[in-house]
Automatic annotation (TrEMBL):
<feature type="signal peptide">
    <location>
        <begin position="1"/>
        <end position="22"/>
    </location>
</feature>
<dbReference type="InterPro" id="IPR005532">
    <property type="entry name" value="SUMF_dom"/>
</dbReference>
<dbReference type="InterPro" id="IPR016187">
    <property type="entry name" value="CTDL_fold"/>
</dbReference>
<protein>
    <submittedName>
        <fullName>FGE-sulfatase domain-containing protein</fullName>
    </submittedName>
</protein>
<keyword id="KW-0732">Signal</keyword>
<dbReference type="InterPro" id="IPR051043">
    <property type="entry name" value="Sulfatase_Mod_Factor_Kinase"/>
</dbReference>
<feature type="domain" description="Sulfatase-modifying factor enzyme-like">
    <location>
        <begin position="27"/>
        <end position="245"/>
    </location>
</feature>
<dbReference type="InterPro" id="IPR042095">
    <property type="entry name" value="SUMF_sf"/>
</dbReference>
<dbReference type="Pfam" id="PF03781">
    <property type="entry name" value="FGE-sulfatase"/>
</dbReference>
Length: 256
């Protein structure tokens, strides 16, 4: 005699089968909800004489509200351990397995993220993930405090500075290592700032970093809206990266 499963059980099994499998690439990521955020650097007074177009805050103006779709971003910077699984023959600056990988080109960072089913965050996504919705200048607020992020002389393991945590719970956006973004160095919407470097020669780098004091530490360089740039082929000892992805994945072709 056949035994029939109760209708409720069948319905539960059917619904479970219809759910997409959890992606391993979502592990360790933080959802940044859709909505507006404060983009850009507030207008300041006179700039230090040594600052160029690429290092002044004028390239991060005008400050404005900007709308973004929801997206996911890695909670932590990509570590040596992570990166060496992708590229076992890598030989970069010496570091512990739980340190952020650094000294890699933009192209290597981009290739790693793509291999994980992700991509590099745009600079606007990076800024929203770090500043939240209230436009704070540092992840903890608007008053600078060197003790609240790693601006020291040595790199730290990822996620080890508890106060360097954004309003959404993303770690190390203010210090430790600066980070490559997906974005080319271009003027902001509505900007009247002129810079001969705008275009597709430089990628935008975001975030403060350890050891900056050896270059003459300035509070402005640690502000979340601050834009730094570098050629995508450059390797720098204080720059790493993290990955992101859209909140909704596109449907496969011919899925209907």
């Amino acid at each position: 005699m056949k035994k029939w499963l109760p209708l409720a059980v069948l319905a539960t099994l059917f619904l479970a089968a219809c759910q997409p499998a959890a992606s391993s690439s979502d592990e360790g990521m933080v959802l940044i909800p859709a909505g507006e955020f404060q983009l850009g650097m507030p207008t300041s007074g006179s700039l230090p004489a040594f600052m160029s177009d690429r290092t002044s805050s004028a390239n991060a103006q005008p400050a404005q509200r900007l709308q973004l779709d929801a997206f996911y971003i890695d909670r932590d910077e990509v570590t040596y351990s992570d990166f060496l699984k992708f590229k076992p023959s890598s030989q970069y600056a010496e570091g512990r397995a739980d340190h952020p990988v650094r000294g890699i080109t933009w192209y290597e960072a981009d290739a790693y993220c793509l291999s994980q089913g992700k991509r590099l965050p745009t600079e606007f996504e990076w800024e929203k993930a770090s500043r939240g919705e209230d436009g704070r200048l540092f992840v903890w607020g608007n008053d600078f405090d060197k003790a609240k992020a790693n601006f020291g002389k040595t790199v730290h393991p990822v996620g080890s500075v508890e106060t360097d945590l954004s309003p959404y719970g993303v770690a190390d956006l203010n210090g430790n290592v600066s980070e490559w973004t997906a974005s080319w160095y271009r003027p902001y919407p509505g900007s009247k700032h002129e810079d001969t470097n705008f275009g597709e020669a430089f990628k935008v780098i975001r975030g403060g970093a350890y050891n900056k004091r050896e270059h003459g530490f300035m509070e402005q360089f640690a502000m979340l809206p601050y834009r730094n740039v570098a050629p995508p082929t450059m390797r720098t000892w204080n720059t790493g990266f993290r990955c992101a992805r859209p909140a909704s994945r596109p449907k496969p072709e011919n899925s209907d």
